[in-house]
């Protein structure tokens, strides 16, 4: 498949790729409901390889659900999502046109990393253990390979000194940087951040944003749900403003943040600033 070109077949080789390569994400007509509640009401977005997209919008507008559909954590009701041409969900008016096996879902999911507001580290594992775990399981890496790569990634996020620390011994900002290193350990083509700094004390926000900035320059395709408007303006090529399950407007930060065309975008920006 196109996806495997230039990319080692995970389980067979056990090699951990040296760095990330951005994937292309296509989202077409995506609808998602929970019972009677239609949370995504026809989302269309294209995320070119290596692009950085900031998603803004009020609480409850469907931002987390959108990330979760990209990462296969939620199936779509209809619509299509693809990463480098590989389809994640495709239904039309209830007709199931394409369904992936569980194995295929797991395989695709290794190419899409996710970082949550609440870090979600394994409490009983050190920073090194947290980062080395997934490549051992998902890519079949040996312990030595996984730990070598984990040390490199912890250095990349500025935590060389903390490889042997447990999560409870780390600040929130440090824990979130371990979580970012862990997401990078599978060499994702796409990395999704769901309000990565919302749970942090204000003085710890910048160290996490600095790591995300460095990833933005490294070429991984990033999607960042954030309320940090200044950060979104600095780091994003495209800002997407969502409200009530639809994209209200999208474009470069200089348009959407500095000169929004829509009243709802203006009202939101005034509230969060
Ligand atoms: P945001 O991240 O923009 O705050 P979410 O995507 O988390 O929004 O949620 C959008 C809407 O979907 C909210 O009304 C929320 O309560 C609802 N919702 C999210 N996940 C579920 C779920 N698993 N079951 C039922 N309702 C959900
Ligand atoms: Mg959310």
From TrEMBL:
Cellular component terms (Gene Ontology): plasma membrane
Residues forming coiled coils: none
Keywords attached to this entry: ATP-binding, Nucleotide-binding, Transport
Recorded topology in the membrane: Peripheral membrane protein
Localization per Swiss-Prot or TrEMBL: Cell membrane
Domain ABC transporter: 25-269
Alphabetized GO MF terms: ATP binding; ATP hydrolysis activity
Major localization class: membrane
Name this polypeptide is given: Phosphate ABC transporter ATP-binding protein
Protein source organism: Brachybacterium alimentarium
Residues of the full protein shown: 36 to 308 of 384
